[in-house]
Amino acid sequence: MPEGYEWGLWSSSNRFLLPHSHVYRRDVSLQADTTYHFQTRNLLPLTSANPDPVMYLVRGNEIVAFNDDYTGLASEIIYTPPEDGTHKLVIRAYATATPGFCDVYQGIGGAAPSLLDSNVRFGGTYVRVRWKQGEWFETGPGTVGGSGGAAGDPYLFLIYPEHAAHSQIYWDDDGAGSLHSKIVPPTGGTGTVILGSYSRNSEGDCRLALVGQSYKAPWMSPAPWAQVHGEAPLTPTVTRYMEELERRKPALDELSPDERDQRVLELQRELLLEEEIRQQAPRLPAVSADLVRRQELFAEHYKELEMELEQMPYAERAAKLVHVKRDSMGREYSEPEGPLPGDDFRGTQSA
Known about the structure:
By secondary structure, this protein is an alpha+beta fold. It is 21% helix and 30% strand.
């Protein structure tokens, strides 16, 4: 079972808990009729798989530009907005087991890209989903003690129908209360939930539920309010930290990603015991030998095409590499497409 979009994430041994890891996001102000060039550089791994960032540029809830691979596994977006406005730059990992670090560069008006953010962490846990109108996605508490402490702060994304320009992306931080997230899609559909975290210092484990008409999808985690035996109560210090973090969110949201991460870490050191800070770290995803082999195959194909790719304009090169990636990684590691398991159990109302 591949690490991306896998239903084997829910095993009874970890009581339906999923890791939520940081998905980079930053607001950028863009001017009309000016060309912007965003790049990821200097990729560093977190697992034994190669780090593989995927980049989105979002206006409102519309993905206006998207890129997976441009220079090897590194992503680039070249985009000219038709009007002024604030956009959101989002970087996640291609699959759950390919997180890492990178530097983010930005070029404006044809100038060479310069450093925008350094040592950026990108990750996320990916779940292919199908839902009906009136249902919603919600995170709930993880465990206390051990890996993935209860003071983690999940940040939820929903992308549909596919990872491409003109698709929709929704996100939420604390819509379910007590640092938990909730997304109510405007229509039914098929897409991908990404479990991120508010900060790279607030990763952890949580539950994920699809709830609504008094039932929940059988492949999702239990509803957040479902009873789970053996869960320990929150300690007073962890409770105080969660309340204070929630109170500071409006001010933290105004900071750059790096400043926000630093302030969250400072708050943890101020209010939590060292042991409680260590407990927040999520489990790193396991990496299969098959994933590593397929990444090596993609690298070989890229090297064979490198001279040809250098002669292609941006859009043609990006489109070519989409096909190379799918041929190398196989359908099960590729972006969500086609029918999902459970068609005989759940009907779908298309978006």
